[in-house]
Amino acid sequence: MGEIQKIRTGRHCVFVMHVHLVFVTKFRHKVFTGAHLTRMEEIMRSVCADFECELVEFNGEDNHVHLLVNFPPKVAVTKLVNSLKGVSSRRLRQEFPDLVRHYWRANKIWSGSYFAGTVAGTVGGAPLPVVKQYIEQQNRPV
C-alpha cells in the first residue's frame, strides 16, 4: 500500500480521507515566485499538522496553489481551509513585504472562494494517484 493510501486510526474509527484543495489569489493577480511557494508550503504543512492532517502534495503557480490533504473525520474542511488561507496570507504578507503592492486595497492574498474535491478512496472523485500526479506536474514559476 502506497504512502498516500495509509489507513489512519482515531480513537473510535479507522479512515482514509483525502481532499484536493485549490486556492486562487485575489483578483487572480500573478504574484507568487518560487520563494513564495516554498515558504507557503512550509506554512501550510505546519497548519495541517496543527489540525492533525497531512499535507501529502503541494504545488502551485503564480496565481494559485493545489494541496492534497489527508484529514481525519473530526476535521471540518471549511475550518481547515479558513486556517490555511488566513495563516498563509498573514505570514506571507509579514515575511514578503513586496506582496503588499498587489493588495493595497484588500489586505488579503486569497480570493474568498476555493475548490475542494473528494478523492477516490474516500467517497468518490478522481483516483488518488491521478490527483497526486496532476499536482506534481503543476509548473512553478521561476
UniProtKB/TrEMBL annotation:
SMART domains: Y1_Tnp. Residues 14-138 form the Transposase IS200-like domain. Pfam families: Y1_Tnp. InterPro entries: Transposase_17, Transposase_17_sf. It comes from the Bacteria. This is IS200/IS605 family transposase. It comes from Streptomyces lutosisoli. The lineage of its organism: Bacteria, Bacillati, Actinomycetota, Actinomycetes, Kitasatosporales. The gene is tnpA.
